[in-house]
Amino acid sequence: MIDVKISEKLKKVCPILTLGCIKANVKVEISSEELLKEINDCCDELNEKISLESIASLPRIKDAREVYKKLGKAPSKYRVSSEALMRRVLQKKGIYKINNIVEINNLISLKSGFSVGSYNIKNIQAPIVLKVGEEGEKYKGIGKELINIGNLPVLTDGISAFGSPTSDSERAMITKDANEIVMFIYSFSGKNEVLNYLNYGKELLEKYSGATDISIKLID
Question: pTM for this one?
Answer without folding.
Answer: 0.96
